[in-house]
Fold these 2 entries.
Entry 1:
Amino acid sequence: MLTLFSEKPGGSFCDGLSRRSFLRLGGLGLGGLTFPQLLRAEAAQGTGKSQKALILVYLPGGPPHQDMYDLKMDAPSEIRGEFSPIRTKVPGIRICEHLPRLASMADKFAFVRSVVGAKDRHESFQCITGRLNDNVPPGGWPEIGSIISKLEGAGPAVPNYMNLSPKMKHSPYNQGLPSFLGVAHAPFMPMGSVKDDMTLNGMTLERLADRRGLLKAFDGFRRNADASGVMTGVDAFTEQAFDILTSSRLLKALDLSGEDPKLRERYGKGTDQIQGDAAPRLNEQFLLARRLVEAGVRVVTLSYSFWDWHGQNFKIAKDNLPDFDQAITALVQDLHDRGMADDVSVLAWGEFGRSPRINEKGGRDHWPNVSGALLAGGGMKTGQVIGSTDRLGGEAADRPVHFQEIFATLYNNFGINPNTTTVADLTGRPHFLVDGQFQPMKELV
């Protein structure tokens, strides 16, 4: 593992760097895998050529489908709620009044109103793996980013799979779980618990752009480390790992300061305040995700806000929906403007829907029977609604869409056949990417 000494008092080298107090540069949230090990693994397996990518937006807590994309104006008031529908750019499609930007771009989105197959569990597992957290094979089911990493590979300058989520208080919301594909395909998590590891010699991630000072510190470290026997040498993979952090496309992609201020304004700010026991409502994550896939990252996941509204559903929604509306539409429009929409799939959803009946606290409770999803890009046929629910919004009435159908569609967008492609678990047993009865959604392909 590559280490760099930090500037703290105590025993030090001649350039003032501490002998004992040092920071690990190697273990940057890759499930314990160091950057050099990652690069060795990539070199051993080769890399893919496809530039297809996925941005997956996880809405922890379960957003209220009937207050967003599936309003029930003919239902009784205790079910209908406070919001009104508005027309969209696509005739016949109406969505919530608090999503006006989305309405104006409805031709670029597919609204799935009948997602089924969920469990009443507050966890990201199904949204990120497409599997239930039951009867798990040895090593655990891999996340979609890990599978894409394994099958497709990536260039040496960026990780295959990145998760922008912070470490959330409710641990089942968190991602980057171990799987039978191993740590080589776990996500790089620059905004999680590894953020502190991205500080060296007093320099934060933002200050890494000052490469002159950084390289001087690194060169000084190497001289003194070799002289003192702390490190006998730095191999080519370690040097490449260092380059990733200091001069690669990854560092540039993580730096938003060079973006056009007008574009950053289009995405909006949201808030960096933690919402509930989940994530901030931070809009710039969406811009960062676009920059990362543009730099060559194949799968980017992020967690946005907190949607478990057992009380004051409509008051909280009035804060959350406009920010989400701004961020998701800015992302999709940005992908279209850059000619990336056919290559980059976008999915936004939560682990389940909300109950039709509004409770005594003005909230909606857990409802795994049916939920919604928002899809865009990826060369998919957008500008449509898929599926419907009954009059009360409690059950799928027409065209139920299973979670795994959506995953099959995402794999298909990468050019991967989910029904014939397999990955092997720790016992060597092959697993198809989805169960055999699930196919890519015919409405979208």
Note: The domain at 3-432 is CATH 3.40.720 (Alkaline Phosphatase, subunit A).
Entry 2:
Amino acid sequence: MKWTVGLIIFSVSLLVVLGLLALYSVTYSKWDGTRSSIVLMSADSLSAVGVAEAENTVDKEWSVSTRNIQGMDSFKRQAFFVLLGAVCCAIIALWFDYKLLQQKWIQVVLLLGSMLLLTIVFIPQLGGVSVKGSHRWIHWGVNFQPSELAKLSIVIFLSWYGSKYPAKIPTFWGGLIFPMLVVSGVVLLIFLEPDAGTTFFLLAIISSMLLVMGARWRYLLVPAGTLLILLCIWLYNDPVRSARLLSWLDVEGTKQGVGLQAYSSLVAFGSGGWFGKGLGAGEVKMGFLPEDHTDFILPIIGEELGLVTVLLIISLFVLLLICGFKVASRSRDLFGTYLAIGITLMLVLQAVINIGVVTSLLPNKGMPLPFISRGGTNIVMLMISVGLLLAIALRGNKSENLGPIQSQRTILDEREIEIGKLFKQKKGDEREK
């Protein structure tokens, strides 16, 4: 397990370093002396004039978004949260016993606490913040995003439930209805923010974990079909989301409007080639690509550091997936197994969705790239999750074994041998008498 722990630390560390380098490049404005002047142009105004005019403009002068004029400030803030997350990760990995999370009152506190915080985002008097019509943050000195805590809380609850009541998982009520009802409040509040991307991400995590724990897949068909019908109705009545979906089907045709972000992302990947233009030398970040510091930071990496670096990032997430499942397979208790699987899925599936969106394989869902996109709450909660994964590897695997099922069988075999010895000894005593 030492190699597994080392590979997890290596993968996460390299992803974080690449994220800091990319964030520094995106948020630090660069002036080219060969250009005549600097024009401040917001992403919204760029969408209005279209890509064609922007391409003509960039031949004469840089087009820089006003938010990019932050110098080192954004980099320093993210580095602070990375350091805070790393400290939390180390403390949890070295000194925290993950089995303490199996206590029932902790499940209640995590879920009710998440619901309370998700409710506060709608109350400005208590610190709720609205950005572009979305209520996703609480400002208490720093901005805090409760949905990040909710993700981990749901994973911990499902792991506890599956290990506490394994016999109920294959049933319809115990393996589907009850766990869904328990987490429905959290999921509904996230959907109302509105944050459809995180909502469907959580539903995918919940369904995956239930199936892994032994729920019957046919029980999920009816809820999945119902959800699909509701999704179609919701898209039909939501012009913003339906426009994004139609744009995803025709990126080239909508590149001067809704499809600007997806089109600019593909341009960034294509212009970077194998080895990129060099760190800081990219031009797509100069106002052409909205949200280039969060959801669409990978195209910036592709343009400046090339396809080789993008493939390296994908390889690191694949390595993290393999290591996470290895930790789960070697855990000696069901709770550790399910928690390791849930955390691994939470980390990797989020990366898969982000990479799918920025390459136009999936419609835009607004999902950050783990360990790389900017976000204080996001990086801290991710590092806490990694700390729990390492704690399982270090404490749940003190001896080499073949997984929880084999371990339980070994214990049962040993007990049968002991009972057999006692029975033979008793029978021998009776013969002597």
Note: The two ends are 54 Å apart (CA to CA).
